[in-house]
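batch_manifest entry 22 of 60
target: Ribbon-helix-helix protein CopG domain-containing protein
source organism: Thermococcus barophilus
requested by: lab member K.T.
priority: normal
notes from requester: please return tokens only, no post-processing; we will run our own comparison against the previous entry in this batch. if the run fails, retry once and flag.
--- input ---
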Amino acid sequence: MKVVQTEIDLETYNVLKAIAIHRGVSLKEVIRESLRDYADAHKKDLVKNIYDDPIWKGIGLLHTGDPEASEKDTWGVVEWSSE
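--- output ---
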């Protein structure tokens, strides 16, 4: 679990609190459920946007001539030195 703290307007608080009382659960549970539902509703579009990112089209296009290049710890490492 991750703790998140924020402010909400009094009207929203009163509605959420009333829902909690009506259902016989804690206010925290009502808020958790609301956030979970919101995240689930937007997750599909978010994942689609991530996979539609053009960066993924570049994967596998770099040819190093070394079939084991991706397994090496030194691949792509830049040596820095101060003068």
